[in-house]
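Batch queue: ligand-bound targets. Current item pairs a single chain with zinc ion. No template structures supplied; prediction is de novo from sequence plus SMILES. Inputs echoed for audit trail.
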Amino acid sequence: MPSLATQQDFRDVQKLSFCYLCGEEFKPSDSINRDHMPPSALFEKDDRDVPVILPTHYECNAKEHVTDEFIGQFIALIHGRTLKLGHRPLDATVVQVAGKPITFTRDLNLHHFIRRCVRGFHATLYHEWLPSNTANVFHPPARGGQFDGDTGEPTDVVQAMLIADNGLEQHKLFSYVLKQNRIAGSTDIVISRNGKCVYECVWTTFDNGKPICIFGLKIYDWQQFEQFDGQPPRGCVGIYSPATGRPKIATRATELEFPFANSDALDPFGR
Ligand SMILES: [Zn+2]
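Prediction returned. Tokens below.
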């Protein structure tokens, strides 16, 4: 049951022999970068210790900088709880749907960011490479929409995304399984950045026997973002299924049932 939280715990992963982004083993001639994952810019100064640092090829890491350009927006998102309606971060737009204000964010960035974190934490916990094309379903901590490049207004896709919100049952199920296994003590966990970044996961199987990892990711109180709209807290959960199977040291899900309140049904780290 890997549970990592201290500088000592994170020492080994700094010496991984492969790049968690491309999967290649490092060669003596490679120029190697130390990737702070997630990036330090996301965290307030007092919260920057202890970071997870993974070695990457310099070139592989540089490709991620496009995403990192959105980090500024992301900080606003994460600290959005202190913002009021009308002072929204730039990447969020409020639209009226059926008379209710709904917040939309640039979903693609969130997906990209979540995938990078999942791959980073997979390498941190299991010292294995997780290819970027690994089958996955992510439920970000905010609903997503698309924006018109010229006007910045949400497009029709917003309506489609609302329909996609019926994925909520799946979101609740993943959250439930994580909470259940937290009570049972059968999760793998990485706590970094002064406790402001928590990644927790558990391993189970599909009906067809394929292994799946169900994970939750919490950065500050980003599950509160949707509460501007009077929505219940919505955390980040998801699943992925590596082609190479379940890592040997990964923790299997409990088959026991433990009663709990589950009042925050959409938040894997909630009650
Ligand atoms: Zn690489």
